[in-house]
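Hey, can you fold this one?
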Amino acid sequence: MRDEQVLAMAAVETAREVDRIRDIIFGPQMREYGQRFENVQRDLDRLQGEIDHLVEQLADQAGDQSKKLQTLRREMRQADDGLREELRQTAQKLMADKVDRVALGELFIELGTQLKTGGSLADFLKIVEETEQD
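Sure. Predicted structure:
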């Protein structure tokens, strides 16, 4: 057993020596690579945080735009309804204000009769005034 312990200790000592030699030869480069890796990792973490923040802002803006769009649609619908109602009222007013065809026909008949009988324009206007008052 003693030989086995000696061999194990020699193997451990040899491994230490190899590590020391490796550290002497490659140590500065390994430390530099380790530092670079840490810097890259830190930059990646920072960039990921910025991306997450931008994604949140974009989601917030999308929500705001959606609300604004819904508001605009509602306003457009109300304005459209208002214009349609105004158009209906105007059409009804025009229908009520236009001259009745029957009354206009009677007026032309009376005018024709006055022209045939040789009546004056003053007589015709009196008849029209009397018709309007009735």
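DSSP finds three helices and no strands in the chain. Let me know if you want another pass with a different chain boundary.
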